[in-house]
Amino acid sequence: MIYDFGLKKYDLYSRTFVMGILNITPDSFSDGGKYFDSRLDLDKVTGDAIQMENDGADFIDIGGESTRPGSENISIDEELERVIWSFQY
User: Which of 22-36, 52-66, 68-82 has the lowest mean pLDDT?
Assistant: First the structure.
């Protein structure tokens, strides 16, 4: 199975790929909102993304909505703003 992302192609049968996870929600269950003080800290987000890449991550999943039990749903626009804003930084 080959995934084609334009500039990159990944043959999923060729090897095991590594995915890094960045949960950029203020109430993340896995890191307690590590990237938020009063607002999203893009320096921390990009620093950790770069470290994941340096450590060998092939993909980075940026989570923009919390899925912890009891979390509140957010609008699609808010989730996209979080993810796209951090991605474009």
Answer: 22-36
Rounded to two decimals, the pTM is 0.73
Please give the Cα distance from 65 to 76 (Å, whole number): 9
Domain with 66, as residue range(s), is 19-88
- Identify residue 72 by its one-letter amino acid code: E
Q: What would the two tokens of residue 13 be?
A: 């049968």
Please choose, from the candidates 83, 64, 61, 84, the residue with its C-alpha nearest in 3D space to the C-alpha of residue 73. 64
* Domain membership flag for residue 25: yes
- CB proximity list for 81: less than 8 A, separation 6 or greater: none
Residue 75 has pLDDT above 50, yes or no: yes
Let me know if residue 1 belongs to a domain. Answer: no
